[in-house]
Amino acid sequence: MLEVASFFSGIGGLELGFERAGLAVNFQCEIKPFCNAILAKHWPSVKRHDDVRTLDPDDIPVADIWAAGFPCQDLSLARMGKRNGLRGQQSGLFHDFIELARERMPRAIILENVHGLLSSHRGRDFAIVLKALDELGYGVAWRVLNSKEFGVPQQRRRVYVVAVDRDPQSAAEILFEPKCGGRNPSPSRSNGAKSPSLFQTIIGDARTGPLVKSIAHCIYAESARHTGTDWSRNYVWYPDGRVRRFTPNEVERVQGFPKDWTLPLDRLAGQSDRIDSLRYHAVGNSVTPAVAEWVGRRLFEVLTRNHGRHEPFTAEDYLEAAE
């Protein structure tokens, strides 16, 4: 059984996907109290810490895989302003994570972040990420994966970086399997024109409602233009003119979580609005479990097949693999 230590765990999107793929979670690190309450609800027996900056590397259980969806606030294009990137107080916690990895050197590291990571400081921040992993001796692969390609009704592009200790071939095999989702692209029209945008495709009862777009725009936790669920773009409407935002359960569904995943065990009497706000924010910051499950299945398949192989690959190795 491959074991996973999770950092910047949020509400456990990576962990949920990885467990569905057959991996076992043995550690979580998350600083936000609400998210910690949700993690404790779903993983009551897993060891947990609240801050990577105060975490002793010797207190992290032995794990084959370290997974980190490190903070995106300073990298996200949704900010509509200056991005501090890896110099920022939030996204800069990547450096603290790398220092922990330097001390423990897990077999594989999985990073997830917004695709704004690729352009932050004209690509220099992404180069820092790759260089940090390379200097530790990891073979690295990266790919942008979109949640809508994994059966989730949301346009959500995220960068996944896979690093395997001294094994670049395994890193590439994990992310670049030929078929990554079950969704088939819509056929073009006979005259060659593009198919209608999925954002323009409406589903629901045209007489009574409710009505929604078949694919939601990316759900942000927060941005310069929008708040909560970014509901100026994502909303539910009715033929009689009524319009409302998504409910917390609907946002969970759009992100691919089970119903009531973010509903805490201890409800705050008379503070349902506060809980709803916390739920919206937590889901907006989360990882899509369906994408994490696909990555987890590839991890399990490749790492168990190549168990114990850590020597650098030569040109002969690649030719033999190709045959």
Strand-helix topology:
Elements: E1 3-7, H1 13-20, E2 24-29, H2 33-42, E3 47-49, E4 65-68, H3 93-104, E5 108-114, H4 124-135, E6 138-146, E7 157-165, H5 168-175, E8 202-204, E9 211-213, E10 236-237, E11 243-244, H6 248-255, H7 272-284, H8 289-305, H9 315-322
Parallel strand pairs: 1-2, 1-4, 2-3, 4-5
Antiparallel strand pairs: 5-7, 6-7, 8-9, 10-11
Helix pairs in contact: 1-8, 5-8, 6-7
Order of strands across the main sheet: 3-2-1-4-5-7-6
Share of helical residues: 25-40%
Q: Tell me the structural class.
A: alpha/beta
Q: N-to-C SSE series?
A: EHEHEEHEHEEHEEEEHHHH
Our count of helices gives: 9
CA-based shape = globular
- Rg calc: 21 Å
Q: Ends: how far apart?
A: 30 Å
Average pLDDT reading = 85
Can you put this structure into words, describing what you see?
The protein is built from nine helices and eleven strands. It is 30% helix and 16% strand. With 323 residues, it is an alpha/beta fold. The protein is globular. The longest helix is centred in the last third of the chain and has 17 residues, at 289-305. Helix 1 (13-20) crosses helix 8 (289-305) and helix 6 (248-255) packs parallel to helix 7 (272-284). Residues 183-190, 223-229 and 310-323 have low confidence and may be disordered. Strands 3-2-1-4-5-7-6 form a seven-stranded mixed sheet, sandwiched between helices. It has a two-stranded antiparallel ribbon with strand order 8-9.
